[in-house]
């Protein structure tokens, strides 16, 4: 038996103003998307914005459904739209923000496991890391240099 240690390094910024101008712009788009969330059941609004290598920004918000599992997270709404609209473009950066309607969300909210798997598909496909930045309603921003950094032991197509 041998033990394997898997380490993840994240960068933490005290506020969005401490990030570069392009990330501030991207986060602004994520906030705009968050404000369009359709979340009558959870009251938890999430926005995602993705910067593509063609300069376009594609954004999305969570879309819920009375049949709960039929709803979709903001990250997947955005990434599937980006993949559908610009199939050849590479995804460079993704900004995420989440805000509960019931309380002030001050901690950074990372993408859920299912969204990490969905984002991983595109990172593997394009063979280029996607930087992920996530925040709550405001406050600290966490940067991961890639999706793989957030999902060790990823399941991906090369094994099929
Ligand atoms: N949600 C997202 O949009 N992204 C995530 O990564 C986690 C959760 C949404 C799904 C649902 O509409 C609400 O947040 C509560 O789970």
Automatic annotation (TrEMBL):
GO terms for molecular function: cytidine deaminase activity; identical protein binding; zinc ion binding. It catalyses: 2'-deoxycytidine + H2O + H(+) = 2'-deoxyuridine + NH4(+); cytidine + H2O + H(+) = uridine + NH4(+). Residues 21-158 form the CMP/dCMP-type deaminase domain. Its cofactor is Zn(2+). Substrate binds at residues 62-68. Zn(2+) binds at residues 73, 112, 115. It comes from the Bacteria. NCBIfam families: cyt_deam_tetra, PRK05578.1. This enzyme scavenges exogenous and endogenous cytidine and 2'-deoxycytidine for UMP synthesis. This is Cytidine deaminase. The lineage of its organism: Bacteria, Pseudomonadati, Bacteroidota, Flavobacteriia, Flavobacteriales.
